[in-house]
Structure formats: structure tokens, C-alpha cells
Amino acid sequence: MNISFFIGNVVKIEDFKFILDSKKHKSKISLKLKLLDKNEIKVVAYDETADYVLRNVSLGNILFIQGKLKQELAEIIVIVKFIKIL
């Protein structure tokens, strides 16, 4: 089972993108989260969660994230399943 929980501070919000050639997802947003132990991780949200992040999350917000870890090239990212602004 691949379930992860993170709490961190938003340090960078990258572009919101529409995915036109995918049958699985319609939109995507990624952001960098600085964790309590000072490590930074890349967080990716899709579809309704991406819309929520675009509308409600800003730099400096503290987030609680539930997601799953995925490796892309040489980078570990978190795919968001649940997000809450603290």
C-alpha cells in the first residue's frame, strides 16, 4: 500500500495546465512544498484537486496532504488524493 502524509509550507506554485490528449486526467498543477524537516518535495494534483489548489492555495500556506509516492525520472513526487489548508 502506497499512502503518504505530509505537512509543509508552499514555497512555489507552478503552472496550471489542461491536458488535452489524456483520457485519464483533464487538468494538472504542481507545487513545491517545504516540509517541517526542511526537505522540499514536488506535489502534483489532478482534475478537481488541481482546481481546488488553483483557487485556494497561495504561497506561504501550510498544507496537509495525503497522497501516494511516484518516481518520475530521478525525482520523487507526491500524487495528491486529499489536501487541506491548515
Alpha-beta content class = mainly beta
The averaged pLDDT comes out at 90
What is the gyration radius calculated from CA atoms? 12 Å
Strand-residue fraction?
Answer: over 45%
The outline comes out as globular
Task: Give the helices and strands as they follow along the chain.
Answer: EEEHEE
Number of helices: 1
Give the proportion of residues in helices.
10-25%
Uncertain stretches of 5 or more adjacent residues: none
Number of strands: 5
Query: What would you call the quaternary organization?
Result: single chain
Terminal residue distance: 26 Å
Report what the structure shows:
The protein has 86 residues and is mainly β. Helices cover 12% and strands 62% of the residues. It is built from one helix and five strands; from the N terminus they run E-E-E-H-E-E. The protein has one helix spanning 47-56; strands at 4-18, 27-35, 40-46, 62-72, 75-85. Strands 1-2-3-5-4 form a five-stranded mixed β-barrel. The longest helix is centred in the middle third of the chain and has 10 residues, at 47-56. The protein is globular, with a radius of gyration of 12 Å. It starts with a strand and ends with a strand. 16% of the residues are buried. The model has no long low-confidence stretch (mean pLDDT 90).
